[in-house]
Sequence to fold (773 residues):
Amino acid sequence: MTTRTGLRSAQRSDFAWAWLFILPSIIGFLVFFAVPSVRGLLMSFTNWDLLRPAKFIGLANYAKLLGDKEFLHALRVTAYYVVLNIPLQTVIALGMAVLLDRFTKSTMIRGILILPWLLPNIIVALLWLWMLDPTLGFINQVIMSLGFERQPFLGSVDQAMPTIAAINIWRHAGYTAILLFAGLQNIPKDVYEAAAIDGADERQMFMGITLPLLRPVLIFVLVTSLIGSFQIFDTIVITTKGGPVDATRVVYWYIYEYAFVRFKMGYAATISVALFLILITITVIQMRYFNADTSDLD
Amino acid sequence: MRFRFNALAIALVMVSSMLLAACGGAAAPAAEPTAAAEPAAEATAAPAEEPAAEAPAATDAVTIRYGLWDGNQQPAYEACAAEFTKTNPNIIVKVEQAGWGDYWTSVQTGMVGGTAPDVFTNHLAKYPEFASKEQLVDIQPFVERDGVDLAQYLPGLGDLWGREGKRYGLPKDWDTVAVVFNKDMLDKAGVTVEELNNADWNAKDGGSFGQIIKKLTIDEAGVNALDAGFDKTKVVQYGFVGGGSGGAYGQTQWSHWAVSNGFKFNDGLYATKYFYDDPKLAETIQWYADLNLVEGVSPTLADVRSLGATALFTAGKAAMTTDGSWMIGSYVNDAKFVTGFARLPKGPEGRKSMFNGLADSIWVGSKHQEESWQWMKFAASPACANIVGSYGVVFPAIQSGVDAALKAYGDRKVDVSAFTAQATEANGTFLFPVTDFASEIGPIMDATMDSIMLGEEPAADALKAANDEVNALFQ
Fold:
């Protein structure tokens, strides 16, 4: 008991220190997240055009949003991207993680896998933009030398979004694989040994042991990469700028276009608030549905 | 389990921070244009030193920052600036250049952030927006005080920059559009320049100009598009390349075709209604798109996007294009073959070219508006027009400057009469459509024209829907 009260007083005296250490984080949070968020919310009730003082216009922006067909289109295009991106990326990453876990201990290979993720998004997008160019690009040279027809990739309404999804899968799969790999390392090896003794094959072990025990990490990866892919923007700025036509006009590009091309900052903020509400709903559903706070290892 | 809590804690922190990032979404992209503006600012730093270094260092000299986007014109205006400082030793002009895209981003963010140039080259598609947002100095009082003669400019150019008694710019130059051709390819196909100059055009079958395009389109087997055996999937030389879909104005892409077919953008300066649903525009745009989609005598929009029509032409992939007079130098210098300029074909309503002109504007946030006005007045004066003309990169807005430009082109043995004849011909030009809401019309028409050019929608349907959308902006 004496030690306990001692600890408590020590905790009290450490309290000030704790705050001091947390302070930089809190300042960062306030300056870069809290204040802009609140300002963004306030902005959504104005008609601010960047150059003249903002005027309060109540819920007019929200009323406009409800009837905005292009916003719905932007949501659809974004959802299309997410559907193209997330399942494939997660499956590829899971495959790579399992291979890493079962067959190699090489940190070199892990390093190479994560390399695309270390490149800035802008560089990745530029790199692929050049490689996929319809006239000069390396990829089309290869396709033609194999006797096939040249492909427009980013220049075609049908191919643009799958191409962007592929670029981002290339960039993120390695990183996701490393996260999943870390999760795999957490699964006790004796479970596999026991299964092997009972005569389970690789497939049965994967379905019966790896997947269930990996669930918390898998959910973490799914939630974060889902939100990340909703925020697809930089690749689009570099490669298609929302085009051709409006095939890649995702929500973030739509927000950018309203804010900095059409000078309607107020409406852009309104779309952002709507996007925030959508994302938070998706996240809550995901967390509930997958029971992310429990593990089958318990 | 230890791991479980760790993972959950990380997940929560990351999720919450990402959500907050999502909420600040409107603010987040703001970093992008600033970043884009940075290289532009760096790129301009070096050349801007020159005139400043040459200028006599007066004790209380004021430095005026002057922005322009056309790198080809930079040496000409630097020469003007040096000349200006000779007579105004207390004003130094620092010329800052950035390419079209970066230029407007940096001007706009500069206006928000308080760092826009004092004087900047303005465009007719952009200035009404800046004026309505109170970013431009009304120079009418200066014009009246100093008695600037607006009649010295070529007819029509001055009026484009005024609205309701206010004035936002003094004209510096003008441009028209003509046909650019590869002389070697013409010779090989047996097409004479005279034939090209006398060609006619219509939206149904392209007229004799359409025949020339076909004659100049050649497939792998050396068969041209007039021949029944022509294979449009194996084209090695296109007869024509247009400069892309052209968006709301199609200045060098389709405006000359459409207007020579009887189309009219709107009812004139600051009109509040567009006529994009005119069937005459629809048939014109369909003809333009079908050059690629049906005939295969022009490259795909994706190919034009990737390299640019100018590069496709100078690389010898296409025999003809249409372009503006400010591009003359680029064609003559970059092409490894003989390049020439021919008259636009005669449409049902005659030959028509858009007549566009640039002017300088003073930013309302400039701390030196009087000095800025002095520079702007000089840049639009005969003295500067003659200097700019002598560089032979653009046609100045004052006749003596035009003569200087013609002499400069003549010295280089470049025949630019296709552009000047178009400008001086009766009813040979129509003015750039200046209206409000250009920044919103842009995205609507870009997407519409793209969808037609890509064959996603027929022109008539797409343009009708777009016109409704555009005109709704004015209500």
